[in-house]
């Protein structure tokens, strides 16, 4: 058997090794989380009171410092009073994996605290809509402009320096302005996602377009291709797989603007759910919601990647 | 080496060959290049790539252009294709000056320039489609071309599934499907291995015999030039100028066996003489030969 050299530069891994490593990349962090949660000797800086004993300010389910607990126990022992009982515990903001796992289910089945506030799935759906419209509006303008910039130098010189400047302005900083113009509902949230995505989008797609092999354009020219046909028959099909990849990356960035966007005006969507649950100290729910965003994001990307392989059978750079 | 038999002059032509050239030169002039010059402006100053190039090509002629590296062969053919504009002079195609690229001049490049997102058939259809031939008509013609180059089985394959030689055959079919007046080829077989290259040369001659096409073919392989060409245009570098236009005295139809015929060897000797003399000139002129240091311990057993 030949041993695979895993640490050769750009080593080709066998499919088995690839899936094993991909699996481990999730299992390892979860394993660390389990150790910190379930092994009392690791961290656990607090004591969860099970029986207050004679200590009058202790209550069941209260978390106190280990030092305080030891002090009170020693005092009680010295004075011959009932001893308090407790178990080592982590702070409330670090729930154990099983609690979070349960929250994945219960968060959907628990009715909202007040009757007119949305259920979790409604919050999530609202967030997805905000992202979707933000990304679509940005793409409607950003993709064509990017392609034009990458194709025609005058357009590039006329727009790109300003866009280059504008992309450094933090999108959330436009929140207040967006509220003043677009009201307090979804308008300003979508606007922030558009501002956060659009400028990067133009520059990235312009760059991708510029990387198209010039020889293909020349070949088309010698075949009698003119002006707009050059754009529609050579430039656009030529960059399509890369454009698609860019869009996937940009969609990921749009997600990262979501939370800030949803804080603008009236807090809504998954952000509203998260802040609400944090206020009631339902931390397992908070983690579940955060992980849900990750799962939706990664899931979408995997689906899009698979679709990409269907759409572009000629694309050689597409790897699993 | 054995004492060499003296070769006849490359200028000597058999009656048959001379008659062929007379017939060739009585055909219409299809391409006329007049006092063509090209100067590149660079940061380091001006480079004169071409100067005072003059020549004519007749209908159905096979013209090869040879010359040492950097003598402006690619620049010349790109000007003919309209991909580059000349600084001085004129290119006339059937009497009309060339302005920009057009379907009347097909081109095959050294690199592979098939459109990767189109199947082989759609690649061949491309020129017809952009020139408003109907889809069905384009498809019918494309299939005929694929048959001619023997790749009809690969009609629905993508270019990345083809070998280098097949890609270039498709590129030739793609250019010819457009029915250009003239086919420009810039070292089209340069990236192929020796056997594939030989096969491609035979293919090209076969295609050229079958259809009404004039070919301008750039190469730095002298055997290739003599094997393919009616006439060979020899350029010399710095600046690129015409050194000689040689009529190849090797009779047609050409076969690989002729590589050792006297006419062939005489022509090759002449080409070598022209090219090495101009190469030697430039080497003394602007590029001092680098003095090589010994970088590693070397035995004395290699030579
Ligand atoms: N775009 C350009 N800008 C500046 N100089 C150029 C440009 N293109 C070519 N040249 C110069 O013109 C000269 C001729 O170049 P060209 O590519 O035509 O040579 P060539 O005969 O095709 O060489 P090779 O056999 O290596 O392909 C060279 O000296 C080259 O440096
Ligand atoms: Mg060249």
Fold blueprint:
The complex is a heterodimer of chains A (320) and B (303).
Chain A: H1 15-38, E1 46-51, E2 63-65, H2 66-78, E3 85-89, H3 97-109, H4 120-151, H5 153-166, H6 175-182, H7 186-210, H8 214-222, H9 227-263, H10 269-279, H11 283-311
Antiparallel strand pairs in A: 1-2, 1-3
Helix pairs in contact in A: 3-11, 4-5, 4-7, 4-9, 4-10, 5-7, 6-7, 7-9, 9-10, 9-11, 10-11
Chain B: H1 15-26, E1 29-42, E2 45-58, E3 62-66, H2 73-81, E4 88-93, E5 96-97, E6 105-108, H3 120-130, H4 135-148, H5 164-177, E7 182-186, H6 194-210, E8 214-218, H7 222-228, E9 231-236, E10 241-247, H8 262-285
Parallel strand pairs in B: 3-8, 3-9, 6-7, 7-8
Antiparallel strand pairs in B: 1-2, 1-4, 4-5, 9-10
Helix pairs in contact in B: 3-4, 3-5, 4-5, 7-8
The complex binds adenosine-5'-triphosphate and magnesium ion (MG).
Share of helix of chain A, binned: 55-70%
Reading the helices and strands of chain B in chain order gives HEEEHEEEHHHEHEHEEH
Backbone shape of chain A: elongated
Average predicted confidence as pLDDT of chain B: 89
Q: Give the CA-CA distance, first to last residue of chain A.
A: 25 Å
- DSSP, total strands of chain A: 3
Work out the radius of gyration of chain A.
Answer: 27 Å
CATH architecture of the largest domain in chain A: Orthogonal Bundle
- What is the quaternary state of this protein? heterodimer
Query: What distance lies between the first and last C-alpha atoms of chain B, to the nearest angstrom?
Result: 18 Å
Structural class of chain B: alpha/beta
Descriptive account of the structure:
The complex is a heterodimer of chains A (320) and B (303). Chain A is mainly alpha-helical. Chain A folds into three domains: 1-31, no CATH class; 46-89; 109-319, MetI-like fold (Orthogonal Bundle), CATH 1.10.3720.10. Chain A has helices at residues 15-38, 66-78, 97-109, 120-151, 153-166, 175-182, 186-210, 214-222, 227-263, 269-279, 283-311, and strands at 46-51, 63-65, 85-89. Chain A has a three-stranded antiparallel β-sheet. In chain A, helix 9 (227-263) packs parallel to helix 10 (269-279). The longest helix of chain A has 37 residues, at 227-263. Chain A is elongated, with a radius of gyration of 27 Å. The model of chain A has no long low-confidence stretch (mean pLDDT 91). Chain B is of the alpha/beta class and 303 residues long. Chain B folds into two domains: 14-104 and 180-273, Rossmann fold, CATH 3.40.50.300; 117-179, no CATH class. Chain B starts with 14 loop residues before the first helix and ends in an 18-residue tail after the last helix. Chain B has helices spanning 15-26, 73-81, 120-130, 135-148, 164-177, 194-210, 222-228, 262-285, and strands at 29-42, 45-58, 62-66, 88-93, 96-97, 105-108, 182-186, 214-218, 231-236, 241-247. In chain B, strand 4 and strand 5 form a beta hairpin. In chain B, helix 3 packs across helix 4 (135-148) and helix 4 (135-148) crosses helix 5 (164-177). Chain B has a six-stranded mixed β-sheet, sandwiched between helices. Chain B has a four-stranded antiparallel β-sheet with strand order 2-1-4-5. Chain B is 36% helix and 22% strand. The longest helix of chain B has 24 residues, at 262-285. The model of chain B has no long low-confidence stretch (mean pLDDT 89). Chains A and B meet through helix 8 and helix 9 of A and strand 6, helix 3 and helix 5 of B. The complex binds adenosine-5'-triphosphate and magnesium ion. The site of adenosine-5'-triphosphate has 13 residues of chain B, from strand 1, strand 2 and helix 2.
């Amino acid at each position: 058997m030949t041993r695979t050299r895993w640490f050769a530069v750009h080593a080709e891994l066998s499919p088995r090794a690839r899936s094993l490593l991909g699996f481990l990349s999730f299992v390892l962090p979860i394993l660390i989380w389990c150790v910190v949660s379930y092994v009392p000797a690791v961290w656990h800086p607090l004591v969860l009171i099970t029986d207050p004993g004679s200590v009058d300010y202790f209550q069941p389910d209260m978390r106190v410092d280990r030092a305080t607990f030891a002090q009170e126990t020693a005092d009680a022992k010295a004075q011959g009073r009932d001893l308090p009982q407790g178990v080592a515990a982590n702070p409330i903001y670090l729930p154990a994996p099983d609690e979070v796992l349960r929250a994945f289910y219960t968060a959907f089945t628990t009715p909202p605290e007040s009757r007119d506030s949305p259920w979790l799935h409604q919050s999530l759906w609202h967030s997805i809509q905000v992202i979707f419209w933000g990304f679509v509006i940005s793409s409607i303008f950003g993709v064509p402009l990017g392609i034009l910039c990458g194709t025609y130098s005058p357009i590039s010189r006329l727009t790109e320096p300003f866009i280059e400047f504008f992309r450094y302005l933090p999108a959330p900083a436009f929140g207040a302005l967006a509220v003043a113009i677009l009201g307090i509902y979804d308008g300003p949230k979508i606007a922030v996602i558009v501002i956060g995505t659009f400028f990067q989008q133009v520059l990235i797609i312009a760059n991708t377009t510029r990387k198209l092999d010039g020889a293909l354009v020349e070949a088309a020219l010698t075949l009698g291709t003119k002006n707009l046909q050059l754009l529609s028959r050579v430039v656009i099909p030529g960059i399509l797989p890369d454009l698609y990849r860019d869009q996937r990356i940009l969609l990921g960035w749009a997600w990262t603007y979501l939370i800030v966007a949803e804080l603008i005006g009236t807090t809504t969507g998954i952000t509203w759910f998260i802040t609400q649950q944090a206020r009631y100290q339902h931390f397992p729910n908070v983690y579940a919601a955060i992980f849900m965003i990750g799962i939706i994001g990664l899931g979408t990307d995997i689906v899009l990647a698979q679709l990409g392989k269907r759409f572009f059978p000629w694309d050689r750079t597409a790897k699993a | 080496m054995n004492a060499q038999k003296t070769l006849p002059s490359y200028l000597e032509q058999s009656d048959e060959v001379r008659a062929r050239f007379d017939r060739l030169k009585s055909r219409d002039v299809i391409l006329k290049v007049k006092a063509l010059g090209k100067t590149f402006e660079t940061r380091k100053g001006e480079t004169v790539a071409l100067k005072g190039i003059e020549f004519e090509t007749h209908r159905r002629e096979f013209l090869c252009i040879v010359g040492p590296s950097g003598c402006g062969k690619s620049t010349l053919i790109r000007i003919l294709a309209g991909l580059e504009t000349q600084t001085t002079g004129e290119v006339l195609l059937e009497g009309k000056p060339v302005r920009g690229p057009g379907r009347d001049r097909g081109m095959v490049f050294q690199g592979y320039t098939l459109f990767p997102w189109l199947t082989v058939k759609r690649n061949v259809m491309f020129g017809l489609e952009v020139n408003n031939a109907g889809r069905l008509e384009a498809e019918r013609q494309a299939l005929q071309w694929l048959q001619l180059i023997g790749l009809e089985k690969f009609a629905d394959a993508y270019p990345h599934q083809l070998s280098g030689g097949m890609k270039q055959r498709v590129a030739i079919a793609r250019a010819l499907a457009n029915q250009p007046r003239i086919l420009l080829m810039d070292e089209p077989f340069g990236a192929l291995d020796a056997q594939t290259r030989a096969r491609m040369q035979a293919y090209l001659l076969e295609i050229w015999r079958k259809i009404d096409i004039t070919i301008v073919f750039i190469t730095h392989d002298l055997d290739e030039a003599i094997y393919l060409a009616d006439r060979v245009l020899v350029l010399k570098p710095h600046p690129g100028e015409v050194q000689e236009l040689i009529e190849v005295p090797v009779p047609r139809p050409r076969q690989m066996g002729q590589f050792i015929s006297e006419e062939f060897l005489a022509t090759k000797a002449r080409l070598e003489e022209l090219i090495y003399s101009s190469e030697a000139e430039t080497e003394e002129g602007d590029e001092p030969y680098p003095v090589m240091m010994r970088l590693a311990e070397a035995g004395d057993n290699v030579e």
